[in-house]
Amino acid sequence: MASEPNPSTATVATPRTIADEYVQALADLDPLTAVYLGLNPEDDRLPDLSPAGLEAVAELARRALARLDAAEAAGLVDGADDPAAERRCARLLRERLTAELAVHDAGDTLRAVRNLGSPLHNTREMFTLLATETEEDWARLGRRVARMPQALRGYRQTLAAGIEAGLLSGPRQVETVIGQLGEWVADAPEAIEQARSAGWFGVLVSPAPESLREELIGHARAATAAIADLRDWLGEVYRPAAAGAPDAVGRERYARWVRFWTGAELDLDEGYAWAWTEFHDLAAQMRTEAGKVRPGSTPMQAMRWLDTDGESVEGAEQAREYLQALMDQAVNDLQGVHFDLAEPITRVESRIAPAGSAAAPYYTAPSLDFTRPGRTWLPLLGRERFPVWDLVSTWYHEGVPGHHLQLAQWNYVAGDLSTYQVSLGGVSANLEGWALYAERLMDELGYLTDPGHRLGYLNAQMMRALRVIVDIGMHLGLEFPADSPFHPGETMTPELAREFFGEYCGLSPDFLDSELVRYLGMPGQAIGYKLGERAWLTGRSAARAAHEARGEEFDLKAWHMAALSQGSLGLDDLVAELSAL
Question: So which domain of life are we looking at (predicted)?
Fold first, then answer.
């Protein structure tokens, strides 16, 4: 197994070389990273989720930072063939690794119980990305399934260390994850008889070749039993220990996570006030659009009508096909007009999310070599009927021209940047800001003229404005302002936040419940959508103004492709870089 060179003995290298060697070293250390990136295809391990495993990852980051210090001290940045490119990569690498280490060193990795994005959830998601084309692919997948009990033991050791250190997740996270694990161990309706009692993993391996199926289902049963044991331990040991833990994290811990998610030092009070301005503007637009859906109706009445009587798709497979067609149409219409897409980027798949997922749809990026395409994932949540009023804008966000175009383009230009800048160095607020910008772009281009679809877009914008308000407000204990239509002057609590959300966002109660747990479990992540979009719009406006000041026509297609070919940037740098394009 490869390892990161020791800075005292390694040859001093440029930042881009250091960054790429860090990616490979982390892929060698952490199989989850390798799977996401499509590296080390012969690997059959699972990540080490124990405290020792987490510390090994942290130490790798420390060594990379030491090598970066050495490169800068040796003058290798200014002396490189492309100093600007080296400087941009060095800045990103330093900022990202420093932010990650701040979270690790504060002990937050010891309390990673949350309803999505935890090591537990990421490890299961890994299995949905594995190749299953050959018998050897299935055998390798089976060996990984066989290692699930060991991985879960490591995860439990980490949580136990958190209990001992007094670093615990909030009660809402614990209850939600216990419920999710109950779904993971339950037999899915489509499970073949041979896979009974093997839970989600039994369904996963049931299509395996006959020669391997019995062995793999045995591994699936062992994995499912280990998941059930973890669920019981969470209920019997962790839940009582976490009973008094706060759901909100407070200003100091919140600021640390905001840096992690946004790559910026944000003025949180300014962001909170700005989001309220957006709230009032969007509320007015939604009232106007609601009248086009149902004359005389309020936004909530119009959205309820769209849920029950509006256009819908019946059946999970039919919904998947509808969303696939939506993305295919977007690629066809945008190609050559607003984007210049290389052939591999034009392929994106619509998938159904595994049972026991959080309520929000999501996207997984293609492998670096595009052998695994980008994919969008629709959680079913027990539904068979899917109203489309809120799906159209969501799939412009998750698929095309949202996450897929950005992340697939990053992969395509990886050779011109560094692998790190297009993968592990990703900044959530940049990614989510682009995806929200993509929704707005489709509205600007006239794709959301249907009143129901446009109300869905405005509701999605409102949800992101509410996220800024609720996320900052809950964690910092801020007051609803004097001009709030809801409980002005009162301190925001999770209970009031959920009630407020339900009055102004037209999504289902189950979805909003899941969202509230998400915000409490991932402090600072949810604000990146709207604040990231603000950065993208500010950069576009400044670039347009600069072109016009020079007497030049602003080429939006060229700007899009240049912007999507920069690789990752934190919000501290994004506006300046976009403005200069």
Answer: Bacteria
CA angle 415, 420, 424 (to 5 degrees): 135
Neighbouring-strand partners of residue 113: none
Nearest to 82 by CA among 11, 15, 12, 10: 15
Q: How are beta strands 374-378 and 348-352 bridged, if at all?
A: parallel
Helix, strand or coil for residue 345?
helix
| Ordered DSSP codes for 531-558 | HHHHHHHHHHHHHHHHHHHTT----HHH
- φ/ψ of residue 251, rounded to 5: -65, -45
Q: How far is CA 562 from CA 332, 405, 548, 565, in A?
A: 20, 12, 18, 5
Q: How far is residue 412 from each of residues 81, 169, 436, measured CA to CA in Å?
A: 22, 39, 22
Beta bridge partners of 364: 375
What single letter denotes the amino acid at residue 46? L
Contact 402, 435 (CB under 8 A): yes
CB of 561 closer than 8 Å to CB of 339: yes
SS3 category, 487: coil
- pLDDT tens-digit series, residues 104-139: 999 999 999 999 999 999 999 999 999 999 999 999
Model confidence pLDDT, tens digit, residues 169-186: 999 999 999 999 999 999
Contacts of 564 (CB under 8 A, 6+ apart): 339, 405, 406, 409, 410, 434
Residue 8 has pLDDT above 80, yes or no: no
Q: Please tell me the distance from the alpha carbon of residue 471 to that of residue 357, in angstroms, as a whole number.
A: 21
Neighbours of 329 (CB within 10 A): 12
Res. 421 pLDDT band, cuts 50 70 90: very high
In sequence order, what are the beta bridge partners of 386? Answer: 313
Give the tokens for residue 528.
Answer: 């990146």
Helix (H) or strand (E) holding 475, with range, is helix 451-476
Q: What's 9-51 look like in SS3?
A: CCCCCCHHHHHHHHHHHHHHHCHHHHHHHCCCCCCCCCCCCCH
Distance CA 227, CA 156 (A): 11
Nearest to 557 by CA among 338, 335, 330: 338
**Residue 164: Cβ-neighbour burial (10 angstroms; 0-12, 13-18, 19+):** exposed
Q: Nearest 5 degrees, angle CA 177-CA 182-CA 185?
A: 125
Spatial neighbors of 514 by CB under 8 A, at least 6 apart, are: 115, 176, 358, 359, 360
- Are residues 487 and 480 in contact, defined by beta-carbon separation less than 8 angstroms? yes
Interatomic CA distance for residues 41 and 35, integer angstroms: 8
Residue keyed to tokens 């990146």: 528
Backbone angles phi, psi at 535, to 5 degrees: -65, -45
**pLDDT for residue 7:** 42
For 520-551, b/e burial (b = at least 16 CB within 10 A) is: bbbbbbbbbbbbbbbbbbebbebbbeeeeeee
The DSSP-derived string for 320-334 is HHHHHHHHHHHHHHH
Nearest of 432, 441, 450 to residue 522 by alpha carbon: 432
